[in-house]
Amino acid sequence: MSGKNFLFVPGPTNIPDRVRRAMDIPLEDHRAGDFPRFAKPLFEDLKQIFQTKNGQVFVFPSSGTGGWEAAITNTLSPGDKVLQARFGQFSHLWAESCKRLGMDVQLVEVPWGEATPIDTYREILEKDSNHEIKMVLVTHNETATGVTSDLHGVRRMLDSISHPALLAVDGISSIGSIEFLMDEWGIDLAVSGSQKGMMLPTGLSLVCASQKALALGASAKCHRYYFDFTLQDSANSDGWFPYTPAMTLLRGLRESVNMLLEEGMPQVYARHARYAGAVRAAAQAWKLDLCAKDASTYSDTVSAICVPSDIDSGQIVKNAYQNYNLSLGGGLTEVAGKVFRIGHLGDLNELMILSALAGTEMALCDSGVDIELGCGVGAAAAVLRVGQSSS
Ligand SMILES: Cc1ncc(COP(=O)(O)O)c(C=O)c1O
């Protein structure tokens, strides 16, 4: 097919030319004497992405899933109780990984499309007078349903009942795109990945730990080696890595961090909010509901859009790809066939969003959804245009 693929899955995302160029270099000697001059400032600057002064950032060569494992194994011991809500495929998988790592997971079932149930968490934690629950897990942005949870609300709730559990957050599809304030919201562990808001290929997990979380390393009995924070710290603190670092990705990371900080994190968040508003305006014009039930939880990085019950959303994704070279996300497990997803995060601009919506609209029509061509694009353009009217 001529032209380019339009990548609108909710990760991996488009890699900016600047980042691609930064990675198009010969491999380097990671033991060279000047390597720390590259690595140390990178660790410092990454803190600004997590919005932390007190936390410590670790960079692992793994996908985001490895970051989950690092967060758990560095702070907990087998048999420890953790509290988690399951409201989508990624909160489900994090809970599954905790179980496999030997945790006693207290799972709160929440309908897909809803967010972290803070009141239910409070009820459970209030009854936990012996503080057996060691960690509260929150999937900040459930990528399967396009739902963002209120992290600040969870922190306020924990403080209001003086519960000492760690607050661990999966920010894989939020950090670097949606407001995330590690220190201000009292987050103890935050997990992110390279292939979403960081605009890089898959292959790095970024984990930020608070001082409280770091202090638990000495008593945490989970087996760990590759993901051990102390092993990393012993090398990272002088600007080295304990094993061969993913050099090419680190060069890309340096450039993507530069780009985010040059734009400014508040501006990055605002840009994502604007694009999300445009996509939601299109969905409304198509008269299709979002999977997210409550407007206050709508995600600014991914919209999961419900299709009429007689239509298979998988067919829409197929048609978008085959007919228009547009990659959309499908519905996962419980919502397979029922929703399709538009990822609107990372290196995007207005016209890229409109192109994706035009392709989506055509694929919707091709799949038998009764919409008027152009209505979604028009509604989104009205949200996105920045110029003054000449009339
Ligand atoms: C919220 C969330 N958590 C975890 C993951 C898993 O990350 P990875 O596929 O990088 O291991 C994803 C991937 O899409 C995700 O969106």
Bound molecules: pyridoxal-5'-phosphate
- CATH homologous superfamily assignment of the largest domain: Type I PLP-dependent aspartate aminotransferase-like (Major domain)
Mean pLDDT: 97
The low-pLDDT segments are none
| Helical residues, percent | 25-40%
Total number of domains: 2
Sequence of secondary-structure elements: EHHEHEHEHEEEHEEEHHHHEHEEHH
User: What percent of residues are in strands?
Assistant: 15-25%
Shape: globular
Radius of gyration: 21 Å
Report the structural category. alpha/beta
CATH fold category name of the largest domain? Aspartate Aminotransferase, domain 2
Biggest β-sheet description: 7 strands, mixed
| CATH architecture field of the largest domain | 3-Layer(aba) Sandwich
List keywords for this structure.
two-stranded parallel ribbon; 2 domains; 13 helices; seven-stranded mixed sheet; alpha/beta; binds pyridoxal-5'-phosphate; Aspartate Aminotransferase, domain 1; Aspartate Aminotransferase, domain 2
Q: What does it look like?
A:
This protein is of the alpha/beta class. The protein folds into two domains: 127 residues, Aspartate Aminotransferase, domain 1 (Alpha-Beta Complex); 246 residues, 3-Layer(aba) Sandwich (Aspartate Aminotransferase, domain 2). Helices cover 40% and strands 15% of the residues. It is built from 13 helices and 13 strands. Helix 5 packs parallel to helix 6 and helix 11 packs across helix 12. The two termini are 41 Å apart. 47% of the residues are buried. Bound molecules: pyridoxal-5'-phosphate. Pyridoxal-5'-phosphate binds next to helix 3.
